[in-house]
Write a structure and sequence with these properties.
Layout: E1 33-36, H1 46-50, H2 61-72, E2 78-84, E3 90-100, H3 103-106, E4 108-117, H4 126-141, E5 143-147, H5 155-160
Parallel strand pairs: 4-5
Antiparallel strand pairs: 1-2, 2-3, 3-4
Length: 174
């Protein structure tokens, strides 16, 4: 099982997930691990996994490093996990972004985003494991709920993960 380190209210820089977190899954022919995103995941296929989900663009390594450092500096807001195969190649990912609210007694809401699994790795319950790990993190940091947006085609997957339809997504693109 993964070892999670809960954040401290007095020390928000203490990570919820330490850098040595691993979670092994009993899948053949290789084992998979789930861990926090690392700077070096640029060269391990992280962006290629995101391309399964949506347009990523051509991101240079220097740009990656700048964005990674910005996100890492907000480690009490962004929890980005990756699934790696036996060769330490990124084959899945998902993120939890924690929103601070005035409602619900200054409650926290977890936004689950960017769930993606490499096409050749789909069907192995890796997406489910990512959702379960992010749900665990959300509960550990004190979120009163987690929400996500998905296409109708993916609704069944998220229902199996314990989510239910709770409204209608609206978007205004720029």
């Amino acid at each position: 099982m993964a070892s999670f380190v809960p954040p401290s209210v007095d020390n928000p820089t203490k990570p919820i997930v330490n850098s040595t977190v691993t979670l092994s899954f009993p899948f053949s022919p290789t084992d998979y691990t789930i861990r926090p995103l690392r700077r070096s995941d640029y060269s391990r296929g992280y962006l290629d996994v995101l391309r399964v989900l949506t347009t990523v663009g051509d991101i240079a390594e220097e740009e990656w490093n700048q964005r990674y450092d910005w996100i890492k500096s907000r480690n009490d807001e962004y929890y980005m996990l990756v699934v790696c195969d036996g060769q330490d190649r990124v084959v899945g990912t998902g993120s939890l972004i924690v929103e601070r609210k005035f409602i619900h007694s200054l409650g926290l809401v977890g936004h689950i985003e960017d769930i993606a699994v490499e096409a050749g790795q789909q069907g192995k319950k890796l997406g489910l494991r990512i959702i379960q790990a992010l749900d665990h993190v959300a509960a550990q940091v004190g979120c009163y709920k987690s929400i996500l947006d998905c296409s109708e085609a993916n609704e069944g997957f998220y229902v199996k993960c314990g989510f239910k339809r709770a409204g209608l997504e609206m978007a205004h693109y720029y």
